[in-house]
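ugh ok fine here u go
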Amino acid sequence: MIDTDAPLEVECPCEHVALVRYDRPDSMNAYNETLLRGAVEMFYQLADRDDVRAIVLTGAGDAFCAGVDLDEMPLTPDMDFAEYKAGLGLFQDIVRTLRSIETPVVAAINGYALGAGCDTALACDFRITSDKGVIGETFIDVGFVPGDGGAFLLPRLIGEAQAKELIFTGRKLTGKEIVEGNLAREQVPAADLVDAAVAFAEELADQPPVALGQSKCLINGSFEVNLNRALSDATRAQRICSQTDDHKEAVTAFREKREPQFE
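structure:
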């Protein structure tokens, strides 16, 4: 679908859905600088394509993403602050990108999603896990804090107290615990994971893409604004949607008592 020199694969398993697979299985898909930069570029490329309405993200082999590759870390303690900020920013850019693109992203957690890999999964709009999925904010195990968004994202998903427990202890959730902890919408057998994630992504891709993208922006931005600003943003988004052919098609389909065909 798209050629890239980064260690990731992209394919189109069905119409309007892109499947992105981190492809460093020997390192459990841990991040190095090449993967960090390549993934951000890839997400933006896919978000710019009219034929891609939903994205599924997973990992090759037995892991989703096991965090940072300690042998190829793009930041070290002896860097000056500006260099360190730039190095950590590579990880933060993954979260920024997943949160900011209007295309919905479904994480298919096929194995370890730890540290930065956990925060990548949290930054996706939805998560589906296999029975082999493992997710954890394991930064505390190496004397770190969640430097790439976990302390922001996790409390918004599961509440402050539970987020603190997982971050403070580094405890990993497995299998059904991930669903019961409200961190995934469902658990499926490992063999069915990608198909289940693609099927859900296809369901999202059937929705009017402008309205879907604007809805994502409104929800993600709602945590940072007051009610008046949120209502103002909603007015702007609604006006944009009102001028789309998809809105006209939806009204026409309703009157004609048929399913709409969104473009």
